[in-house]
UniProtKB/TrEMBL annotation:
It holds the Pfam family Ribosomal_S30AE. SUPFAM superfamilies: Ribosome binding protein Y (YfiA homologue). Gene3D superfamilies: Ribosome hibernation promotion factor-like. This is Sigma-70 family RNA polymerase sigma factor. InterPro entries: RHF-like (IPR036567), RHF/RaiA (IPR003489). It comes from the Bacteria.
Length: 359
């Protein structure tokens, strides 16, 4: 939630102009609220007005998580000055949020690596001294991303097929854990490659299951996907640190939902277009609605492309790690990411446009 405080304007302006200025500021700050809907840190915007040499000076000071965001502008026209200052502030907010998001993801990746290295020691000891059930229970709780990965593959396969394919995530996960138990001695010794090896087991296992059920080549077509903006659930759900499904508002830091699709992950080359699309998307749906839209469109892509995109965006693996998981080249991974992003951009633009021209 964003709060604002105006400083010094009543000393510089008569009562009528001061009230008009307050109304203008209120409209501008309301437009900024969408940036901070789930921003846990209390955010206060200080608006400091001064006058010198027949010009108004405005300083905007916003206390964001990574530090203060400050914008300074001057103009003899107070309305023009306000619009200019707030336009600049919007750009700075977008840049700062993206910076904070990337820093958060980097920290999460580092924590995941450290956690996994420790977990591997427990798994190795358990594999040697305990029974299969104990090992699989530890694996389930320690690496919830494996089951989540299977879950996304099944959901997108069902969407692509247009029906329930009969694949059950819990059954598949149980089989996968058993496979990892049986093959645990085959994992690479390099610490950085162990998690990729596990996801490689999940990916090849899923590919085998889809092949057995004649579903590997199943993908929808753009015409199968609904036009316009999809309906969304009443509540937004995500996955907590232990892999449990929980409402987004109950997460420790829901502004950084790293297991959902974000507009910044798709419109990566042009920050201005990304911001424009974010404005249009935010007017039409929640974060969960956008995630649902992207997921439905991904179902139209071949298994290789949609799984590569998920590993990169949702599971946050680098291209070379995905190449290890998929047993292909980094160039193939980068090409798949480029093609999926290009497709998603076209479909999102098309859906937004269809909403704009709808009667």
């Amino acid at each position: 939630m964003l709060k604002h405080i105006i400083h010094n304007h009543k000393k510089l302006l008569n009562k009528e102009k001061a009230e008009q200025f307050e109304g203008l500021i209120q409209k501008q700050t309301q437009k900024l609220q969408r940036y901070f809907k789930r921003y846990r840190k209390p955010v206060v915007l200080d608006i400091i007005l001064s006058e010198d040499d027949r010009q108004y000076h405005m300083t905007l000071n916003l206390n964001m998580r990574s530090g203060p965001v400050i914008v300074k502008r001057k103009n003899s026209d107070l309305r023009a000055l306000t619009h200019d200052a707030f336009d600049s502030l919007k750009n700075r907010i977008t840049e700062t949020l993206e910076k904070e998001r990337k820093e958060h993801l980097y920290t999460k990746r580092k924590q995941r690596s450290e956690h996994f290295d420790e977990l591997m020691g427990y798994l190795r000891e358990t594999r040697e001294t305990a029974d299969r059930n104990t090992f699989e229970a530890l694996l389930k709780r320690g690496v919830p991303g494996l089951r989540n990965y299977l879950d996304r593959r099944v959901k997108q396969t069902n969407t692509a097929a247009g029906e329930d394919t009969g694949l059950r995530v819990d059954d598949l996960a149980g089989e996968l854990y058993t496979r990892i138990y049986d093959r645990f001695g085959d994992h690479p010794e390099e610490a950085g490659s162990r998690l990729s090896w596990m996801y490689g087991q999940a990916d090849s296992f899923m590919e085998e299951k889809l092949t057995e059920n004649d579903l590997l080549e199943t993908s929808g077509t753009p015409d199968d996907a609904r036009t316009g903006i999809p309906q969304e659930p009443e509540f937004t759900y995500s996955v907590d640190a232990e892999g449990e499904l929980v409402p987004v508002d109950e997460l420790d830091d829901p502004v950084f939902i790293h297991n959902m699709y974000n507009i910044e992950d798709i419109f990566t080359e042009n920050p201005d277009e990304a911001e424009e699309m974010r404005l249009k998307v935010d007017e039409r749906m929640t974060r969960d609605g956008f995630h649902h839209l992207v997921s439905s469109e991904l179902a139209t892509q071949p298994f290789f492309k949609r799984s590569v995109f998920d590993l990169y965006i949702i599971d946050r693996f680098e291209a070379d790690e995905i190449a290890d998981i998929k047993d292909c080249s980094s160039k193939e991974v980068e090409q798949a990411l480029l093609e999926v992003r290009t497709y998603l951009k076209e479909r999102i633009r098309s859906r937004i446009k269809s909403e704009e021209v709808a009667p």
